[in-house]
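Q: Structure tokens for this one, please.
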Amino acid sequence: MGIASDFVLIVIAGLAGAIVARALGLPLLVGYVAAGVVVGPHTAGPTVAHVEDIELLAEIGVALLLFALGLEISFRDLRAVRRIALLGGPVQMLLTAVFGGWLAYAAFDLPGTDAVWFGAMVSVSSTMVVLKTLAAEGTMGTLASRVMIGLLVVQDLAVVPLLIVLPQIGHAEAAVAGLLKAVAVATVFLVTTVVVGTRLLPAMLRRVVRWGSREMFLVAVVATGVGVGSITYQLGFSFAIGAFVAGVVLSESELSHQALSDVGPLRDVFGLLFFVTVGMLFDPRYVLEHAVAVAMLVVAIVVGKSLIFGGLARSFGYGNMAPIIVGLGLSQIGEFSFVLARAGRAGGFITSDTYDLALTCTVLSMALSPLVFPGLLPLARRWTRRRRPVPPAQLVSVERTTLENHVVIAGYGRTGRAVVDTLQGAGVPYVIVEYHHESLTRPLEQGIPAVWGDISSEEIQRAAGVAQARMLVMAIPEWQAIRLGIQHAKRLNPRLFVVARATGVAHVDDLRALRVDVIVQPEFEGGIEMVRQALGQFERNADEIDRLTSELRRALYDPLVLPVPPA
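A: Here is the predicted structure, written as tokens:
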């Protein structure tokens, strides 16, 4: 089967590693990396045969992750952190490179050129690890997270100049000329992509949406990401950075939430492939031979990067818990260090010992990072309690929607429109979630808060602010979407008050099992209203009509007792 058998082995090993990690209470990423060590070429047992081919395939995982990052975070979202990203990012990389190079020179007596390359590898952090961990911890919307992402974007973009400058160490004129050429090409590409992409790509995807094929929409989204990535690769830049630019362009469209939701599972599968590949690069024998020195170097790098990032965040005015979270969150070495290491080894600029040292430190720091993340907030809180408190506004949420304590209305058909009109008249904040794009034409034109996408997707629910909402109204007729949407919403917000429509009589019990607060069955409600109108014709007083219809409702919905919605 060739590479196909390798792919099957990696997926099965990744699943086994994830199960073990979950059983031990560890992050899934650690299980993926451990699985890579087991099936890698440096250990006994089942082994991946085509390692280089799998490594190339794993680059798709990085590209899809950055594409999803671009979809989720537009330049408007990063505006609040542009100062630290654009000014502090280069400063951080320079300080970290000097620190990492000095450590390698002092601890391992590396030659000067090798130490410079090693310092450059240490200067980048892992976009893949940070984004996966932020998503798992549910902290993507904090300002500290945005600071980290802004710095990561600058680091990823800086890899291309590093690949140009590092091979020209000692040849300043050639390095400057190559760098200026790269900047010129990159500028033309970015301007062309933004100008053309903001007009052409959303229009193309809207046409696909009108055809009504979800499968075709997914294919179009993936083709956009990898297509733009391929163009950047042909221009001599990173394939993954091109995918990121494509995501940023699409993020300005109302289609971005559903695109992110659809591409998510594919991104996760290829992400597994990437992390297993990271583990395959790990050589346990090298670690055993240099155990003490490697351990001390990894600890020094993690501590040093934490102090540099934390100090940088503090110097740019971020207080409270932000410096600690940013510092420890970006303390690992990133996946693009593999790119630099391969380039240095292939060009003969670094020795095999430097290559092995860089890979070992990178893998160990990436594996440690998910273990550190869960303790960041508790550690930061204990630290801030010992120091003079600063205004807590540094960690406020900066999600696109600033709605809070609002109503999320799933479906903008007749029922949904009636709910919207009533809430609008009462001055209650709300946001609409609707999958049929044509139904959102009027709300979008009128500036009504709306999200296009499938309410059963957690990504769409996050975009609609379900975690901060007070109530969810399920006004859609699709039962599976109702069921999955409620399950996900309850996970995001256990205190959420849910009103849902039972599409059939049999679904009343199912909604009761889902702990829905108010169940509305149209046939029941229609019968109750008919009884009300009939009793009115017999001149019964209003109190008696209310009593009789309430008894009828209890009989129909029994044993459910409908609670009164909170005031």
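A few notes: Strands lie at 407-410, 430-434, 450-452, 471-474, 497-501, 518-520. The chain has a mean pLDDT of 78.
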